[in-house]
């Protein structure tokens, strides 16, 4: 059996939001577990503001050191992004490896990255985070090696640090060039889709809300049997199961297809730099016609999770896109909520595990993305075959009858198409 590293978790409660702190520490526990670590204890401190030099108070540092010794913790993990000087000082005081929330998230991202783009993005984010913190990391290593103190070894250490810095800077440069290449390929793909005028719907929301489960259920409902398995994505009860953006075509028939994209989940205290690092995968969200904000409404903290998602979306400058809030896992709520049901145009309650809910969600999506579509009847003369085939390819055709003067079709088409082909409208009176 694999030996798990024992870790001690540390957090500061600044008392700003009720219940926020406990939730954050619980989440840190899950993050540590997702990195295959074993949390053996939690130390917390109530403080109005974080200590600039040490994150916690001086007395607390002593307590952490003693507790870590007692519980045989090998690593100490802090619940915030530590500044380079905090990291350096804590490492020195505690004489043990120190990690922070961001490092854990980056570590999980690294494990989960599958596509070339995700791998490049994670490596770049990690190096950018490490660069200003190298000094602290180096000092800790030198101390552990027992070579601190002598002038000659310090000189050698500084030289090594300089070399490491330069190597990392070079690699960051390479990575951003490679990412630009991948991003270009993605843009070509997107242009093809835009030209084909297929609406793009993006699933967004907190990690573990059920985004991938919804995508898979849609594939189950609307894909051919033989391609179901290869199209599906990973859904799992763990943080950040999805790192790559996957776009799938959902074929509901009658020219009412849409593309559905699954994206990386958001989390509380996700560092700004990391959101930016994922910019190119999140471009699908920026280009979406409609966002489905998936919320796990069985989670007691769902309101805070929604808040985090809203913040992250506005960081991505997509805060004003049309949104449907999908309250998912209604089957798991402690207070039963009837589902599927909608509340106004913007909110629906479903369970991704239920077929009826998926059909309901699909009809709500179609109503929204095809809101600019209108029912019309056209009479298209037989010598205008190209107009007829345009409607057959781009409109939702209800009926087609061949009459003496031409083809009579009843369709739901885009308003722009109705205006363009106004002369063929079959106005009865
Ligand atoms: N009971 C119940 N469980 C659900 C429902 N939807 C999803 N789940 C479960 O919730 C867990 C997380 O689902 P995912 O679809 O992987 O969540 P996600 O939003 O894609 O998560 P990330 O990829 O980490 O961002 C899985 O174990 C699902 O089986 C639901 O409606 N009801
Ligand atoms: Mg997922």
Automatic annotation (TrEMBL):
Tell me which domain of life the UniProt entry assigns to the organism this sequence originates from. Answer: Bacteria
PROSITE patterns (UniProt xref): G_HFLX
Q: Which residues form the Hflx-type G domain?
A: 199-373
Localization: Cytoplasm
Coiled-coil residues are 158-192
* Positions of Mg(2+) binding: 212, 242
Entry keyword Hydrolase: no
GO cellular component, alphabetical, reads: cytoplasm
GO molecular function ontology, one term from the record:
ribosome binding
A Pfam family found in this protein is: GTP-bdg_N
Matching entries from SUPFAM superfamilies are given as: P-loop containing nucleoside triphosphate hydrolases
Kindly give the NCBIfam families that the UniProt entry links to this protein: GTP_HflX
Instruction: Say what the protein does.
Output: GTPase that associates with the 50S ribosomal subunit and may have a role during protein synthesis or ribosome biogenesis.
What does the record note on quaternary structure?
Answer: Monomer. Associates with the 50S ribosomal subunit.
PANTHER family assigned to the protein according to its UniProt record, in alphabetical order: GTP-BINDING PROTEIN HFLX (PTHR10229), GTPASE HFLX (PTHR10229:SF4)
Please identify the protein, giving its name as recorded: GTPase HflX
Species of the source: Parablautia intestinalis
Q: Which gene encodes it?
A: hflX
């Amino acid at each position: 059996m694999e030996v798990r590293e024992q870790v001690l978790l540390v957090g500061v409660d600044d008392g700003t939001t009720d219940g926020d702190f406990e939730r954050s520490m619980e989440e840190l526990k899950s993050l540590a577990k997702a990195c295959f670590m074993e949390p053996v204890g939690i130390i917390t401190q109530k403080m109005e503001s974080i200590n600039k030099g040490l994150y916690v108070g001086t007395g607390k540092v002593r307590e952490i050191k003693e507790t870590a010794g007692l519980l045989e913790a090998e690593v100490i993990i802090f619940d915030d992004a530590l500044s380079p000087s905090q990291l350096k000082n804590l490492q020195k005081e505690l004489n043990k490896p120190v990690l922070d929330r961001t490092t854990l998230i980056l570590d999980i991202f690294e494990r989960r990255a599958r596509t070339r783009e995700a791998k490049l993005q994670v490596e770049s984010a990690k190096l950018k985070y490490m660069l200003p913190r190298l000094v602290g990391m180096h000092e800790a290593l030198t101390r552990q090696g027992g070579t601190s103190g002598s002038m000659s070894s310090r000189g050698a250490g500084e030289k090594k640090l300089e070399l490491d810095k330069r190597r990392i800077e070079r690699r960051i440069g390479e990575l951003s060039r490679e990412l630009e290449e991948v991003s270009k390929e993605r843009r070509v793909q997107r242009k093809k889709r835009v030209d084909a005028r297929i609406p793009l719907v993006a699933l967004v929301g907190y990690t573990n809300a059920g985004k991938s489960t919804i995508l898979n259920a849609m594939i189950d409902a609307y894909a051919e049997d033989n391609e179901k398995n290869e199209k599906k994505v990973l859904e799992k009860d763990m943080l950040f199961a999805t790192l790559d953006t996957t776009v799938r075509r959902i074929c509901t028939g009658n020219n009412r297809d849409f593309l559905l994209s699954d994206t990386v989940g958001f989390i509380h205290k996700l560092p700004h730099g990391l959101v930016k690092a994922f910019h190119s995968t999140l471009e699908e969200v920026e280009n979406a016609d409609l966002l489905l904000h998936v919320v796990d409404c069985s989670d007691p903290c769902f309101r805070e999770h929604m808040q985090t998602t809203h913040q992250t979306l506005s960081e991505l400058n997509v805060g004003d896109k049309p949104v449907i809030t999908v309250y998912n896992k209604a089957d798991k709520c402690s207070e039963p909520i009837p589902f599927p049901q909608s509340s106004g145009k913007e909110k629906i309650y479903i369970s991704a595990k239920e077929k009826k809910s998926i059909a309901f969600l699909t009809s709500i999506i179609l109503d929204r993305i095809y809101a600019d579509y209108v029912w019309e009847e056209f009479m298209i003369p037989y010598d205008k075959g190209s107009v007829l085939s345009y409607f057959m390819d781009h409109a939702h055709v209800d009926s087609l009858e061949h009459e003496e003067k031409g083809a009579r079709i009843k369709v739901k088409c885009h308003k722009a198409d109705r205006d363009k082909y106004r002369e063929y409208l079959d106005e009865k009176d």
